[in-house]
Amino acid sequence: MKKVTKYLKKTFLLLLIAYSFNGFIHAINLDDGRIDPFDQIEDFESVVYIKIGNAVCTGAVINSRTILTAAHCLIEGEEAEIFTGNEINDDSIKLETTSFVKLPEDRRYIGFNGASYDMALISLKKPLKDITPLSLNPSLPTLNSEVFISGFGLHGTGSIPDQDFDSKKRWGKNVLSIISKESSVVGFATLSDTPDKTILGFSFDENVSSLESSISLGDSGSPLLIKDGESFSIIGVASWITQSIETLSRGYGTSAGFSSIEQNSEWITLNNPLRDVVTTVDGKWSLNETWNDVYYPNNFIPSSENYNSISARYYSASINNSIDLSNTVEIDELNVSRLGNLVLNKDSSLSVLLNTHILKGNVTNNGTFASSALFVNEGSYQNENTSLFLNQIEVNKGELINNGDITAVSIDLKEGMVSGNGKFITDSFTSEGTISPGSQTNPIGTLTFSSLLESKGDLFIDLNNNNESDFIKVDKFKIDGTLTLNPLNTFYSGNSKFNIMSFEEIEGQTFTKLNLLKPNFGRLHQKVIYNDKGIDLILLNPNYESLVEKGRARSIGRHIDNFTNLTSISFQELLDQINYIESDNELSNGLESLISSNNYKYFIERIESLEGNTKQGIFISQQNYDLNSTHSKHESNINRLDINYYGLNIAYMNMEADSNSKYVKSYADSDAQEISYKLPLTFLDIILSSYKQDSRSNTSRNLLIGSSAFQAHAIKDFEIKQDSIDFAKVFDGDIGNFKLGFSYSSINLSTDPFSEILNNTTTDYVLEDVDFDFYTPHFEYSKDLSFGLNSMKIGIGYKKPIYKKNNLQMNVSLDISNEVLTLDEDLGLSEDPLTTFFISNVYRKSLFTKLSYSQKEDSEMLQLRIGYLL
Fold it and tell me: What phi-psi label fits residue 577: left (phi over 0), alpha (psi between -120 and 50 degrees) or beta?
């Protein structure tokens, strides 16, 4: 009897379910106490409206390409139309589909399909971007789990169900009360011998909760959801509903059945239109064995004849190996991982309909690359041809290399580097990282931004010493951040100008900071010039006056500062070497070397060493005058002729002088005349003399400035005049002869204007005449000796000059300066005493010979005089 009763109940339930499926469209009926069925409806945005012919079902978005629904919703030959939103009307936008496939299992029962295999997948023609998909839950839930439902269509209450169809989405709750083999609920399948699967279900009971709900006409294919935290996941798909035994309606007392995700997950994975594929080996994109799927990724849409038999295939591809692409491919998403390296060869094309993510991987495009958006994190994207992004590019700790054209709505460089020689076509480019035109092999480059460029990070500009630099061309520039200069060479010229940017518009005033990456500019100053249409960098010579302390160098530096921005190329070459001298003292010496120093000390003191003649007769002399200091050596050969008659002495001298130091070589040829007269007094010797010397000096200088040597050459004509009066008194005694004296001299030094050519730069010199006086007290002791016909004298002399003036004024026209540099030059005359040792002899009172040696400080004079006494 129990077996019969059980059989009758199962048969009745089976017939009731069959009756319930007179139509396969179900909808939600709510608890009588439900007030607002639309409250929090936004939580169910992934639940969509499906129209197939004249029938309506519900489905769920499980990814950007796939709608999950019930198999019994499919109508052969009819394409499904998908609508999103919470209310469907005539203005709602239809989403086209490309395939609608169901589980291979056909009807299981005479009156209805059953729930075990009641699943189908619909593919969308275009990826759905604005809705967050629901995830599939591959685990069986537990009994009494709280579940959620949502759908479109007829709606009503538990007591008065199925009142209206307004195409509005509603939602509700229930408690899972059925987890059972399908045969245990509706009996064994009468039309199929396929394995029995577990189905899920619940009952719609009164007085449980105001959110108690159940599906009814309009809700086939709707998801059965569980909630974990704030997220929903799908555990089942609506398949059938019973009618109440008491009311024969779909209100209180009904039960609903759902196909199980867990039971059908393998089929879903194999037939999901959006396929996640991964590379397994290095190789070509177009080889199937490169991937972990039957086919290599390339979006596929079946023909209309195969709409219900073959699923469309759309791909989300992940690159974990080195892959070459040489053909035309379209996919939905692209992910390049740490080990991934994708190269698009020439004439290839890759279209990514959604987003491209590069995470520590690399993509090199030599063909055509298109994507909705690009996200680079610690990886690199290198464009050598054409790249098109319909939305944004975001780079975070990565590198964007562009040697072609990149088009995007916006580019956001959060951290990382942009480089290359290409063009960006965007609405806006915001950089908080580094923008550096050029490449590693050729650092100097040009980047073009057909957009608003907002620089919040670092503009990294390479510069070489050929006046070439990175260049940035932009439509509108919003200036901020840092300008970093990277000198590629170790030596740069002053007054070098670099054009680093051009723009049509600019917003802002200056860079926040100027940063020099390497100290390769020496003492050059960097000045950024902000023009109306561009930005220039000028390397300026330093302020030389402030760098030195010495008076002469400081004066020269001050003078150069007046025209330092307009120097000639040749003169700038000299300054360039000075600019790289590290030592302030050496820099001072370098500045001083630009102006030729006077060497009159040698010529004036040489006059002091000349010995006049007071004896009556004719005499010739040969004199060698040497001055050897620590840094230089001067040598003179003087040939002299004296004719003296009755106290009047006329002398002619020819002087040749060589001066040599480490860096200066000079040759001077001089002619001099001297006239002196000894007054015929017995009590006092008074001698009046006048001396004139005409000289031509040919000087070559070898200037070692910094790391370079330069040549300078000058020819200088000058004249020295000296007028003197000498007073002396001789005292004869038994021990010898003493001579005490004092002389007064007046000297005039005049120099013709002359020019010096230094490194092809002409420097003109005009020296003011120098007039100065000096006094010379002197003393002499001698001893007379006689040997036969010879009368000899041996003696020593001493004299000390005292100068009242020791300087000259030199006016210099340096390089292209319109101003004259006036220098008050120290002649450097020494007041050290001159000491002379001599020995003379008169043979037969007519033949005269005298040999003398004089020394003053570092100078020496050796003289041999021979004559005939009258």
Answer: alpha
Question: Taking Cα atoms as reference points, which of 155, 161, 148 lies closest to residue 211?
Answer: 148
Q: Are 662 and 631 in contact (CB under 8 A)?
A: yes
Residue 574, helix vs strand vs coil: helix
The pTM for the full model equals: 0.79
- Spatial CB neighbours of 380, under 8 Å, sequence gap ≥ 6: 358, 362, 363, 398, 399, 400, 401
What number of other Cβ atoms are within 10 A of residue 869's Cβ? 16
- How far apart CA 115 and CA 255 sit, in angstroms, is 13
**Distance between CA atoms of 168 and 234, rounded to whole angstroms?**
21
**Nearest CA among 600, 691, 624 for reference residue 859:** 624
* Residue at token pair 């159940």: 214
Residue that has been written with the tokens 């006689």 in this structure? 786
pLDDT in tens, 498-548: 999 999 999 998 999 999 999 999 999 999 999 999 999 999 999 999 999
What DSSP state is assigned to residue 103? -
Structure tokens at 530: 């902000």
Q: DSSP class of residue 44?
A: G
How distant is the alpha carbon of residue 183 from its chain centre? 72
Question: In degrees to the nearest 10, what's the CA dihedral of 266, 268, 274, 277?
Answer: 0
Q: Which helix (H) or strand (E) holds 79?
A: none
| Residue 95 DSSP class | B
Distance CA 534, CA 465 (A): 21
CA distance 78 to 69: 15
Taking a C-beta distance cutoff of 8 angstroms, is the pair 413, 431 a contact? yes
Cβ(283)–Cβ(290) below 8 Å: yes
pLDDT in tens, 71-108: 999 999 899 999 999 999 989 999 999 999 999 887 78
What is the distance between the alpha carbons of residues 172 and 523, in angstroms, rounded to a whole number?
A: 79
CA–CA separation, 798 and 262 (whole Å) = 126
Both structure tokens of 592 = 């001083």
- According to DSSP, residue 57 is labeled E
Long-range contacts of residues 536-539, Cβ cutoff 8 Å, at least 24 apart: 536/497, 536/498, 536/499, 536/500, 537/461, 537/463, 537/469, 537/485, 537/497, 537/498, 537/500, 538/495, 538/496, 538/497, 538/498, 539/492, 539/493, 539/494, 539/495, 539/496, 539/497, 539/498
Residue 593 to residue 712: CA distance in whole angstroms: 10
Determine the 3-state secondary structure of 286 from DSSP: coil
Question: What's the CA gap between 351 and 714, in Å, rounded?
Answer: 75
Q: What pLDDT, in 10s, does the model give residues 263-280?
A: 999 999 999 999 999 999
Helix (H) or strand (E) holding 360: none
Q: For residue 206, give both structure tokens.
A: 């009164």
Helix (H) or strand (E) holding 519: none
By CB neighbour count within 10 A (0-12 exposed, 13-18 middle, 19+ buried), where does 160 fall? exposed
Identify the band that residue 11 occupies on the pLDDT scale cut at 50, 70 and 90.
very low
Residues 6+ apart with CB under 8 A from 118: 70, 71, 72, 103, 237, 239, 240, 259
**φ/ψ bin of 608: left (φ > 0), alpha (ψ from -120 to 50), beta (otherwise):** alpha
Helices 569-579 and 584-593 cross at an angle (nearest 10°) of: 160
Residue 288's pLDDT band, with cuts at 50, 70 and 90, is very high
What is the predicted pLDDT for the residue at 267? Answer: 95
**Given the structure tokens 């001396």, which residue do they identify?**
691
Identify residue 856 by its one-letter amino acid code: K
Asked if pLDDT for residue 247 goes beyond 80, the answer is no
pLDDT tens, residue by residue, 659-711:
888 888 999 999 999 999 999 988 899 999 999 999 999 999 998 888 888 99
- The residue assigned the tokens 């060493």 is 609
- Which pLDDT belongs to residue 738? 93
- Show the tokens assigned to 639: 């040939």
* CA–CA gap between residue 731 and residue 781 (Å, rounded): 10
What integer pLDDT is reported at residue 663 of this predicted model? 82
